[in-house]
Design goal:
five-stranded mixed β-sheet, 8 helices, 49% helix
Length: 264
């Protein structure tokens, strides 16, 4: 099996080469004054508006919707009148409408809770994060075990780049975070030094040879997750700035093993 550090080096070289921009010397055969006539794009006729997008007629609007809109307008109008002309009558009119709104809201909340209690598939605390203290402790413990397993698996197929520069006030802190997390899970970490910077935790750092530009790093320090799977090599920026151990572990777990939409 090829060591992860060798794979990191193999990933760094082609990506740095990609940072080179096209110049005249790459296309000198075309000449100084050569230009291409852009193709004429055919005109596209506008699509007809589907019937489903047309605004429904007044007769199609449910009476509850019309009543709700009327109550909202009444609340806004009486409030505006009371603010601009706060007489006893105007303020009373506004409070009466507000009281009706609050009563309807309370009734809605009561029915909402009864539906949740009697329909488990609609109860978020059952299908997702619980609200009960005892259940929440169990849920957090299970979530922590899953996260640990995901990061341990990621360490077998991913490496980490640590990019730092001179006069970086957070570089020492994030270097120690990387040391602890990589030691816990077995990640291979390759440091990249910008402008001749030195970091005592990573004395064997490589000099930046275009990696920062290719990885689109705009601020330091930076942590980059490198996928080293054959045919699927990819760089993902994990952090730019200080990061705690738990935050780094969480980001690795989510970006490598949690499908989009499954966290909430």
């Amino acid at each position: 099996m090829i060591p992860l550090r060798a794979l990191l080096f193999g990933l760094l070289v082609p990506i740095a080469a990609m940072a080179k921009t096209d110049t005249y010397w790459d296309q000198h055969n075309s000449g100084w004054f050569w230009y291409a006539t852009p193709p004429i794009e055919p005109e596209i006729a506008p699509l007809p508006i589907p019937l489903a997008d047309q605004k429904p007629s007044i007769s199609e609007i449910p009476p509850e919707v019309a009543a709700h809109e009327k109550l909202q307008r009444q609340l806004e109008n009486t409030r505006s009148v009371a603010i601009m002309n706060p007489t006893l009558q105007n303020v009373t009119d506004y409070l009466l409408v507000q009281q009706e709104v609050m009563q309807r809201s309370a009734r809605f909340a009561d029915v909402w809770q009864r539906v949740i209690w009697t329909t488990p598939e609609l109860d978020y605390s059952v299908t997702n994060r619980p609200t009960n203290a005892a259940a929440l402790h169990t849920w957090n413990r299970e979530l922590e075990a899953q996260r640990t397993a995901l990061v341990a698996d990621a360490a077998q197929t991913h490496g980490l780049f640590f990019v730092f520069g001179p006069d970086c006030i957070y570089c020492a802190q994030i270097a120690q975070t990387l040391r602890r997390v990589s030691g816990q899970f077995g990640f291979t970490v390759q440091a990249v030094a910008v402008a001749g910077a030195v970091n005592e935790d990573f004395p064997d750092a490589w000099p930046d040879n275009g990696f920062v530009e290719a990885a689109q790093i705009s601020s330091l320090p930076a942590i980059v997750l490198a996928s080293l799977a054959p045919g699927h090599q990819q760089l993902t920026l994990l952090a730019s700035g200080p990061l705690a151990d738990d935050e780094l572990i969480e980001r690795i777990a989510v970006l490598t093993g949690v499908p989009i939409g499954d966290r909430f």
